[in-house]
């Protein structure tokens, strides 16, 4: 770790000395100051206002002292920017007015131009100036997750329409996901060129797939996103939920850091992924309401398990729940910073793969 490199970036590059910590969905949801500034403002509108994006992104950095900021946005933003008719409905999630079901429907997916999201460049530039040495993480949705919303028309429990199209019309699927990969790559490029220090590709729902289907029909498109960003010297994080059987493939898609949910211990996850990747995670968000002594021991266990990996960024195994107590998150940050270096230093070293 160089004197000018942040702990977060050092961990991404597998040369950390401490344990950095940030939380997915830390910008918003559970923070009272977030609800105050967003009162009466829709989600997509708030994402298009650089002043709000800057303020909301900074709120958890001020409150918790986390080691990285996550850009406040939504994976639907680039789709909205190219004219897809969608809304984010409170309590439901993204709702697509006209789901994609045929080749003709693909005509609505035009390429994303930087000018379509000029407010993103403006907000990232402001944030980098305000954050100083604290890194900013940019993010986008991965092709499979975006495709699932477009095909299903909204959230789904089984992704039946998505999987059926994927296996029955592979040519249509490939064209759809190629366009979505290019869309996500451009959205990430805009953030990087404006100053983001790292990026995270969310394939939130890829865990619904078998490893064989993921490798055949999804991995090439996620890899296409990462390949288009290879010219930039920024760490690339890849995350999904329920991806225990996909962890090795998530790394192979082109990540530097593989996000791990709470279902697989980090030591085992790292063994599956291999020595060329850092890991991120993986405290179960449901445990945030547990008594502090119990929760603190779980935090320590995550750090100890993560020490078996060549790099570890402490995080939750998914996003911060809306009901989370901000004070508890603050205590977790303090514990990770205070005890993380010693726990990592005394834990067993990386044990390799099969």
Automatic annotation (TrEMBL):
Q: State the organism named in the record.
A: Microlunatus parietis
Principal subcellular localization: cytoplasm
* HAMAP family from the UniProt entry: URO_D
What family is reported? Belongs to the uroporphyrinogen decarboxylase family.
PANTHER family of this UniProt entry?
A: METHYLTETRAHYDROFOLATE:HOMOCYSTEINE METHYLTRANSFERASE RELATED (PTHR21091), UROPORPHYRINOGEN DECARBOXYLASE (PTHR21091:SF169)
What name does the UniProt record give this protein?
Uroporphyrinogen decarboxylase
List GO terms (cellular component aspect).
cytosol
Enzyme class, one word? Answer: lyase
Biological pathway: Porphyrin-containing compound metabolism; protoporphyrin-IX biosynthesis; coproporphyrinogen-III from 5-aminolevulinate: step 4/4
């Amino acid at each position: 770790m160089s004197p000018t490199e942040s702990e977060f970036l050092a961990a991404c590059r597998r040369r950390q000395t401490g344990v950095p910590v940030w939380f997915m969905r830390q910008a918003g949801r559970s923070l009272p100051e977030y609800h105050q500034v967003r009162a009466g403002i829709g989600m997509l509108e708030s994402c298009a206002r650089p002043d709000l994006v800057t303020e909301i992104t900074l709120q958890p950095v001020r409150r918790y002292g986390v080691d990285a900021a996550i850009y406040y946005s939504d994976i639907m933003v680039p789709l909205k920017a190219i004219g897809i008719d969608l809304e984010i409905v409170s309590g439901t999630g993204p709702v697509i007015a006209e789901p994609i079901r045929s080749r003709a429907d693909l005509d609505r997916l035009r390429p994303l131009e930087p000018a379509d999201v000029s407010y993103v460049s403006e907000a990232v530039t402001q944030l980098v100036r305000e954050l100083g040495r604290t890194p900013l993480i940019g993010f986008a949705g991965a092709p499979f997750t975006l495709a699932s919303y477009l095909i299903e028309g909204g959230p789904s429990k089984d992704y039946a329409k998505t999987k059926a199209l994927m296996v029955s019309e592979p040519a249509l699927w490939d064209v759809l996901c190629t366009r979505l990969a290019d869309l996500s790559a451009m959205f990430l490029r805009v953030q990087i060129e404006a100053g983001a220090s790292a990026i995270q590709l969310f394939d939130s729902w890829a865990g619904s797939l078998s490893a064989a289907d993921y490798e055949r029909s999804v991995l090439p498109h996620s890899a296409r996103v990462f390949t288009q960003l290879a010219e930039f010297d920024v760490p690339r994080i890849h995350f999904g939920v329920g991806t225990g059987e996909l962890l090795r493939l998530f790394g192979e898609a082109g990540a530097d850091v593989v996000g791990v949910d709470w279902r697989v211990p980090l030591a085992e996850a790292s063994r599956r992924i291999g020595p060329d990747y850092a890991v991120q995670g993986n405290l179960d968000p449901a445990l945030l309401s547990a008594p502090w002594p119990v929760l603190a021991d779980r935090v320590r266990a995550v750090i100890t398990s993560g020490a078996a990996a060549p790099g570890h960024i402490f995080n939750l195994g998914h996003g911060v729940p809306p009901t989370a107590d901000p004070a508890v998150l603050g205590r977790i940050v303090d514990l990770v910073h205070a005890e993380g270096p010693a726990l990592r230093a005394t834990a067993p070293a990386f044990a390799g793969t099969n």
